[in-house]
Write a structure and sequence with these properties.
The protein has 15 helices and 13 strands. It is α+β, with helices and mostly antiparallel strands and about 525 residues long. The chain has one domain. Helix 7 runs antiparallel to helix 9 and helix 12 packs antiparallel against helix 13.
Length: about 525
């Protein structure tokens, strides 16, 4: 928060101090602050070609970003293991305060990142016959070149890096920008993953919510100010603190920074279950404290006293001698102990753990019940829920990917080192292909598709039922001609293999005309 204080005044710093006090009070109780996702930053539409408007925009929006930044720093530290259980203040017997943190936040983040982004996410041709009536072979080639460029830029690894950002912080950022130096790469652009702690986008405060600016900055310790770069569709500004030190035209006419989000609320993948994780840490730590307090139990002396020398002898020798007084009072020496019911505590911990996995959409680690086929495993132990939550993420990620593709197409159109036909590529020619979840039990599903088509089920309905493709309707349109040829060929083959009677009528358990005539003649001869 020192950044916002130094640049933009003490009003924000005072609010931050109040929030930090509340957070510290909760941290002393081993509980995290209550987060509800990152805030979208809006600003009234203004003319950003005017320098003064740009400075005012940065001043006002940086304060909102700083609030998000505080939360993202906390979430990132939490995922790395810096959790509030280590700051708990124990009022009773504070000398016994063992702290144990099971880093479930990292477990959830690693699973989500690996499950959703472990396989490469690619661009594929959307359709062979669409509204633009483009040559399908040319579209195939263009999309292939785009994928080759992205592969050259290491997009698969950068997707994983950025996914870890928005799974941990709720937001991630990637930038595509024309190469600043000559190179032998086929891609005329560079892909850069930006730190969400130092990057944010600003949207218009109206019904359209258009992106009006993107800001990325770095802290300069020697001058105690921030150096920021502000991207608009027309201009690129360089700021040092609140002073503009550079202004150049945007060479591609589009904001090159794209914002990715984990969900609609821009929450981290483990953010909703932080209270449950804190409760598990408290329960496990108190179980350890219970064990330590049992071993270091308080010694109760009744009707007897010991001096300092006897205390030392008790510590060294481990025993104490008592006598009954003349008035018959008997001395008693015993440990004061009270132990937790471990069975009940374990049941509580297991319940918290199962609820955490269910809310976070992470499968359990139990063995699958019932069959062990691909479909049975998918439906057991939370895998179906994990798949459902992953599919919910896909449209949000695809939306940002299509925006990134728009930036790349703008760069290609302004580059002189790419084929002309590549510049004709449109975003509508391409879709984002997730290869995570469409190939399990593929043999059974393709067999079911073939069987349904063979018994005259509508191809569109059959393709939709087996759920192999993302766009069943377009796959039907693209494949219908080939499906019809296969079916016509099969019908012709069946007809050529069937025997014929004298009248050319197919014999398939049904008598032809010649058969009836021959049978009638035999009956007449018998009657005579």
């Amino acid at each position: 928060m020192y950044l916002a204080f130094c640049i933009y005044g003490e009003k924000k710093a005072m609010a931050t101090e109040t929030n930090e006090k509340k957070n510290n009070d909760r941290k002393s109780q081993a509980m995290s602050p209550l987060f509800t996702g990152r805030k979208t930053i809006y600003y009234d539409a203004v003319d950003l070609s005017v320098d003064a408007n740009v400075i005012t925009l940065v001043e006002r929006t940086m304060i909102a970003h700083a609030l998000n930044r505080d939360e993202m720093i906390y979430l990132r530290q939490y995922e790395r293991g810096d959790q509030p259980i280590f700051y708990r203040v124990k009022e009773v017997r504070p000398e016994i305060n063992l702290c144990a943190a099971s880093n479930y936040a990292k477990m959830i983040t690693d699973f989500k990142t690996g499950y959703e982004f472990g396989s490469p996410i690619m661009f594929v041709q959307r359709a062979k016959d669409d509204y633009s009536k483009a040559d399908p072979k040319q579209d195939d080639k263009r999309v292939s070149i785009i994928n080759e460029m992205l592969l050259e830029q290491g997009k698969v690894g950068k997707d994983v890096e950025m996914a870890h950002d928005f799974k941990t912080c709720g937001l991630g950022y990637m930038m595509a920008y024309p190469k600043l130096e000559e190179s032998d790469d086929i891609a005329p652009f560079d892909l850069v993953v930006l730190n969400p702690l130092n990057t944010y986008c600003v949207y218009t405060n109206d019904a359209y919510r258009r992106k009006m600016a993107a800001i990325t900055y770095s802290w300069l310790p020697e001058s105690q100010v921030a150096k920021a770069t502000v991207y608009t569709s027309e201009w690129i500004y360089e700021l040092l603190g609140t002073r503009i030190i550079g202004k150049t035209a945007n060479p591609i006419g589009i904001i090159p920074i794209v914002e990715y989000k984990n969900d609609h609320n821009k929450m981290a993948c483990f953010e909703a279950v932080i209270p449950l994780m804190d409760a598990i840490n408290i329960a496990n730590s108190d179980r350890l404290n219970d064990l330590a307090q049992y071993v270091q139990a308080i010694l109760w002396l009744h009707n007897c006293t010991i001096d300092e020398n006897q205390k030392q002898e008790l510590r060294d020798g481990g025993f104490i001698q008592t006598t009954t007084t003349a008035d018959g009072k008997e001395a008693k020496v015993t440990y004061v102990t009270a132990s937790l019911n471990q069975a009940e505590t374990q049941a509580l911990t297991d319940d918290l753990y199962s609820r955490m996995l269910e809310i976070a959409g992470v499968p359990g680690r139990d063995s699958a019940s019932g069959g062990n086929t691909g479909a049975a495993i998918l439906l057991s132990n939370g895998w179906q829920l994990a798949e459902t939550m992953a599919k919910t993420m896909e449209p949000l990620f695809s939306e940002s990917e299509m925006e990134l593709l728009g930036v790349i197409i703008a760069i290609l159109k302004n580059s002189g080192n790419v084929p002309e036909e590549l510049k004709e590529l449109k975003k509508s020619d391409v879709i984002v292909k997730f290869s995570r979840n469409k190939t399990y039990d593929l043999v059974s599903r393709t067999s079911a598709l073939a069987n349904m088509i063979n018994i005259d089920i509508d191809p569109g309905k059959a393709i939709a039922v087996v759920d192999i493709f993302d766009d069943a309707q377009q796959v039907t349109i693209d494949s219908l001609e080939m499906i019809n040829k296969i079916l016509e060929g099969k019908i012709s083959k069946n007809k050529s293999n069937e025997p014929q009677n004298g009248n050319g009528v197919t014999v398939d358990g049904v008598k032809g005309a010649d058969d009836y005539n021959a049978e009638q003649n035999r009956e007449n001869s018998s009657a005579v």
